[in-house]
């Protein structure tokens, strides 16, 4: 740097070899630092799995695979089966995605492609604010505002129209798998909108111009060119939302009814893995009970990997078609 | 003159120097008596500014674990430690653990039935039947029988229980286990149990909120929570046949009718005393028998003495029931064991 910025330096003056060496040394330092940063993530993950695995020896020995495939959770008798929790976690997360993806994606497309700049920037600020609201606040909103509305308006309407479906049968007490999914959906929409909007904005203008020049309408350009171009990033936003939905604890436990039973009706109460760990950990006495709760953490970890894996496969299966169109 | 002032200043400086040699004692455990303990430790600190007792309300299970691991100086629990837990404590700490009852609490049934404002009378059989899922309608004879003149609807009963592990649940299930052999065999007692029916709410506020939200529901909350939130709650029939409303006096009375063993590990639910409210319980401080740090030992001994004396007079302002005199006398004697 010094040699370049000196105007009187002779033209043939090359940076000294030691300077180049120093630059390379800098490369090595940067390489090492970033490597350490990256491996710390690997290390934390490894430690996490190791801890969950080594602290759940007792229930794994006692129940084996039955831990995941039985549904009696009885701390008094020392009988632990995680199936109702796995069921509740998977169903609420998937249902939340079904509700939130269309809304989130629609909002992101509007904000990135169609809305006037000023509205877009105000709305984006609001959405980022929503993403930062603590989950206990969503839980409070859920129990004091949403549940009564569901009880007085939404569920009666659902029962009147779709009541013949087993998933909308049975009595509704306000707290339920359905209520938890709606609260989760509200919580994860901001993640989908905020990230998807960013990736849509990052699509090069040339892509849009080329499409418009070929005679496409604005919507055709958005839906067939911009969205597919940004699809990887959009999927990324959905994964982020899914991860949050699977692990959400406080808001869910306030509206799900905390009942470890598998019922076909979405209007029935349920329970999730994260919620039961948070609820029972503080008062859990006895090694088997504690370790069963830790094994639940291991199951949640595995479930997250499994659901993410299935989602990745879905993308691989649908990806090329999206790109072609 | 100047010299005298200097002396005085020096003296004051020296004294504050001595006083600021603070002794910190840490405890952890039950959440239910936390308001009482906070007040006690606060008052004690006001009287003896060099003594600071810190209490973390992390739950009874956590309190037992932390005192066993010696990460705190004393524990606190809403349920007595089991024989296994005491054995583990002895192995790990090389000394015994002592239980000291501090105050009494109670669980009360709270309900939301449209059109019913009366204080309902519950028999043990009715409560066990409801929570077992065998009595499913409010106008069932087992409920309607002891409530003549109250028009109970033919609606389905919605049961609400605690979802988080808690001493409140321990007391409730301990009571049901005593009055119903079927409950004892099928469900048992514990801080969390496998509920035959019902919805789970987190904390007293979760149960109270769910009951308020759900028509024809019934749940149980701590007496203090019910009193401070001005909730109405039902009476429960005690062993001598009287329907008793939970009040500080009737809760304290529950400890009167029970023979207190030397280690104070006793359940006083379903007390035989005539005026006792039957779903009552002690809450305990867990103190290691041998405390090696002599400073801390003195603080803990002094505090326990103070808690049994002036401390007991502060309980009623916070809606906790004070210990009956015989229990206080017995505990004062047991204090000598701590060394």
Write up this protein.
- The complex is a heterodimer of chains A (325) and B (339).
- Chain A is 75% helix and 1% strand.
- Chain A is mainly alpha-helical and 325 residues long.
- Chain A has a two-stranded antiparallel sheet with strand order 1-2.
- Chain B is of the alpha/beta class and 339 residues long.
- Chain B is 41% helix and 19% strand.
- Chain B contains 13 helices and 11 strands.
- At the A-B interface, strand 1, helix 7 and helix 13 of A face helix 3, strand 7 and helix 9 of B.
Report the span from N to C terminus of chain A.
Answer: 50 Å
Largest interface: A-B, 32 and 37 residues
Note poorly predicted spans of chain B: 10-19
Rg of chain B, rounded, reads: 23 Å
Give the averaged pLDDT of chain A, no decimals. 87
Task: Please tally the helical runs of chain B, counting DSSP H or I stretches of 4 or more residues.
Answer: 13
Q: Fraction of residues of chain B in helices?
A: 40-55%
How far the N terminus sits from the C terminus of chain B, by CA atoms, comes to: 49 Å
Which structural traits does this protein have?
heterodimer, A: 325 residues, mainly alpha, disordered C terminus, B: 339 residues, alpha/beta, three-stranded mixed sheet, 11 strands, 19% strand
Q: How are the elements arranged and paired?
A:
The complex is a heterodimer of chains A (325) and B (339).
Chain A: H1 2-5, H2 17-54, H3 57-63, H4 66-69, E1 73-74, E2 79-80, H5 83-114, H6 117-131, H7 135-162, H8 177-201, H9 205-213, H10 218-229, H11 231-247, H12 250-255, H13 273-280, H14 287-324
Antiparallel strand pairs in A: 1-2
Helix pairs in contact in A: 3-14, 5-8, 5-11, 6-8, 7-8, 8-11, 9-10, 11-14, 13-14
Chain B: H1 2-19, E1 23-29, H2 34-47, E2 51-56, H3 60-68, E3 74-77, H4 83-93, E4 97-112, E5 121-122, H5 124-132, H6 141-144, E6 158-162, H7 167-179, H8 181-186, E7 199-201, H9 203-213, E8 217-222, H10 223-228, E9 235-237, E10 243-244, H11 248-256, E11 280-288, H12 294-313, H13 325-334
Parallel strand pairs in B: 1-2, 1-3, 5-9, 6-7, 6-8
Antiparallel strand pairs in B: 3-11, 4-8, 4-11, 9-10
């Amino acid at each position: 740097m010094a040699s370049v910025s000196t105007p009187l330096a002779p033209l043939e003056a090359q940076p000294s070899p030691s300077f180049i060496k120093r630059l390379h040394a800098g490369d090595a330092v940067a390489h090492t630092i970033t490597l350490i940063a990256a491996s710390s993530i690997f290390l934390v993950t490894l430690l996490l799995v190791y801890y969950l695995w080594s602290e759940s020896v007792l229930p794994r020995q006692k129940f084996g695979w039955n831990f995941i495939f039985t549904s009696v959770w009885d701390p008094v008798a020392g009988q632990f089966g995680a199936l109702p929790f796995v069921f509740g976690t998977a169903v609420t997360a998937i249902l939340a995605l079904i509700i939130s993806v269309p809304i989130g994606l629609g909002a992101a497309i509007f904000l990135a492609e169609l809305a006037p700049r000023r509205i877009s920037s105000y709305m984006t600020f609001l959405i980022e604010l929503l993403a930062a609201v603590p989950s206990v606040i969503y839980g409070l909103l859920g129990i004091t505002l949403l549940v009564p509305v569901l009880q007085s308006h939404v569920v009666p309407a659902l029962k009147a129209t779709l009541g013949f479906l087993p998933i909308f049968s049975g009595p509704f007490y306000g707290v339920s798998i359905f209520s938890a999914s709606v609260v989760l959906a509200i919580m994860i929409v901001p993640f989908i909108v905020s990230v998807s909007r960013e990736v849509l904005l990052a699509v090069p203008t040339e892509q849009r111009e080329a499409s418009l020049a070929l005679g496409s309408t604005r919507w055709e350009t958005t839906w067939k060119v911009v969205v597919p171009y940004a699809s990887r990033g959009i999927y990324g936003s959905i994964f982020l939302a899914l991860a949050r939905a699977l692990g959400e604890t406080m808001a869910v436990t306030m509206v799900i009814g905390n009942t470890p039973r598998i019922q076909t009706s979405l209007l029935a109460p349920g329970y999730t893995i994260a919620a039961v760990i948070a609820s029972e950990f503080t008062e859990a006495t006895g090694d088997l009970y504690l370790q069963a709760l830790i094994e639940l953490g291991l199951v949640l970890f595995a479930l997250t990997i499994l659901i993410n894996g299935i989602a990745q496969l879905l993308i691989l299966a649908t990806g090329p078609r999206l790109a072609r169109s | 003159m100047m010299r005298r002032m200097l002396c005085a200043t020096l003296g004051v400086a020296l004294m504050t120097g001595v006083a600021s040699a603070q002794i910190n004692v840490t405890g952890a455990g039950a959440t239910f008596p936390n308001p009482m303990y906070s007040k006690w430790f606060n008052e004690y600190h006001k009287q003896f500014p060099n003594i600071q007792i810190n209490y973390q309300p992390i739950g009874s299970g956590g309190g037992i674990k932390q005192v066993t691991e010696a990460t705190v100086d004393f524990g606190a629990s809403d349920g007595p430690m089991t024989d296994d837990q005491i054995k583990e404590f002895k192995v790990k700490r090389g000394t015994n653990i002592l239980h000291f009852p501090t105050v009494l609490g109670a669980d009360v049934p709270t309900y939301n039935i449209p059109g019913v404002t009366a204080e309902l009378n519950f028999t043990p059989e009715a409560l066990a039947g409801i929570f077992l899922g065998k009595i499913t309608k409010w106008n069932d004879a087992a409920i309607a029988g002891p409530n003549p003149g109250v028009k109970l609807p033919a609606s389905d009963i919605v049961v609400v229980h605690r979802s988080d592990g808690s001493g409140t649940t321990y007391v409730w299930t301990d009571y049901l286990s005593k009055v119903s052999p079927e409950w004892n065999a099928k469900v048992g007692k514990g801080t969390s149990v496998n509920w035959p029916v019902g919805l789970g709410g987190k904390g007293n506020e979760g149960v109270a909120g769910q009951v308020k939200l759900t028509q024809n529901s019934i749940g149980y909350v701590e007496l203090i929570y019910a009193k401070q939130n001005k909730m109405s709650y039902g009476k429960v029939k005690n062993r001598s046949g009287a329907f008793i409303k939970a009040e500080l006096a009737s809760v304290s009375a529950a400890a009167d009718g029970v023979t207190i063993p030397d280690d104070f590990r006793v359940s006083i639910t379903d007390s035989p005393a005539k005026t006792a409210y039957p779903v009552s319980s002690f809450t305990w401080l867990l103190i290691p028998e041998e405390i090696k740090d002599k400073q801390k030992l003195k603080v803990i001994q002094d505090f326990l003495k103070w808690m049994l004396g002036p401390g007991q007079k502060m309980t009623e302002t916070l809606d906790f029931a004070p210990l009956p005199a015989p229990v206080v006398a017995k505990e004062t004697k047991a204090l000598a064991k701590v060394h």
